[in-house]
């Protein structure tokens, strides 16, 4: 492996401490998920972690990112785990790898691929043969990358974690033992850990005696370390997830936590002699359709940004927490004199769309592209594990309004009759039915807004969950189409014409559209698309308008990165989760399909999460519910 020295060292767990080459060693790590950061920026983020005083980088491994299809294992570009670990080593730092297979992480499905559950017999996070066979294939591929990069072989990896907060989900000791055996058989010789929230029940259920227990929490460090010590009587205490911020759901205020309070908790951890992994050091972005969701009575989709109010914000700029944490760490070890430069923000600008195509014009006419079924299929039954599906059915003749109902809608359905949109059914509003006027052809456009990543709903199917009924009678004879958004985006891009200056305004019609805009850049840069000026008409009144928003009071943005001197072009579908690639850019999303109340324009700024127009810092109010509590219940 290039960049790794031939010399070998050892990292082990001693009676009281971690031991590096036989000497006591405290781990001060920070979480940085390679799959949430543009690969061109990995080295920059790793370097900034070292400048804050960290000695270790921790990362999850997202199974469904590497294996979007059964049998696939992609390690190209932003999924090159080996290159990421080599960059950590080149910076003189250690690495902790947490391959799951379940990772939570506010990531789509907690990292478990949707295709894994096509067969309803597959068990979730337990010693069920079909599940274990798929897990084994994935982990073996991961360990082929990790094993030669262990510290014993001259690499950076010092710890590997088994599963993730398993005590909150199950107590199948045979499942955990299977993961341990596979890990050791795959050549992993560094210490193995587990992590659980610091309750007696979770710590006792989520580990094995041969594994080193660690905790996950963000406050009351002294109390929670004491709980952890009862279950891990020897060896070092470690908080493997020190929650320094929190994630956001759509419609909420951006979660922030006090830098001084977080620094005081970090100080308490270090004063107790504990090791720590700061979660997150840099959160990054949920690119494409990769955000997860919570469901504790109400479905809550996570936003595209994973800023997390971390020491480095979504743009990679140091925040107040960076300097507060650096000051705390400096009390316990030396930190570099150098600090990262603050990032300057370029003026915001607007871009007009040069093409807009109704979704109906992009749907293939070829009957062979549609799948005919008697009962309405879920997205999983169609082989759609992220994105959208379109369903249509011929309605029984009638002259009166009837009620269309489904068992469940997961997660958002736009309902049309004879090409006219009549309304939306939304899971987060606990809706399952809608009034349908007389007509011939019913169409339902279904959107997966993120698979649940925590709790008992992990592994559930997406889309329309039957039965579909009309006034209580089952509606049959469906045709369904997985939407190939990449092909549709290419069609819209080909319909656009590049002209110097602003193009003529594009007319937006009622219903779903895909739109295209482009602009030039002189050099690579992170940019954010602000869609707060976009609006959609209510289906019942053209006078009613609602803003296209994400977290309450914030613009809907996520990171875009354009290559030097490239003409950057995007096709957007104006959907809550419909985000297109912008050539080599990171993707973005807006709120919902709908009718635009005026000619929309893209406002583009270099300010990231928490920034207002023009890149000026905006400080939305703190969440009124107070500081975060255990994961999945902020």
UniProtKB/TrEMBL annotation:
The active site is at 165 (proton donor), 241 (nucleophile). It holds the Pfam family Glyco_hydro_35. Residues 378-484 form the Beta-galactosidase 1-like first all-beta domain. It catalyses: Hydrolysis of terminal non-reducing beta-D-galactose residues in beta-D-galactosides. Residues 621-634 have a biased composition (Pro residues). It comes from the Bacteria. Residues 18-331 form the Glycoside hydrolase 35 catalytic domain. Residues 539-576, 590-634 are annotated as: Disordered. Its EC number is 3.2.1.23. The keyword Transport does not apply. It is an enzyme of class 3 (hydrolase). Keywords: Glycosidase, Hydrolase. This is Beta-galactosidase. It comes from Clavibacter michiganensis subsp. michiganensis. The gene is bga.
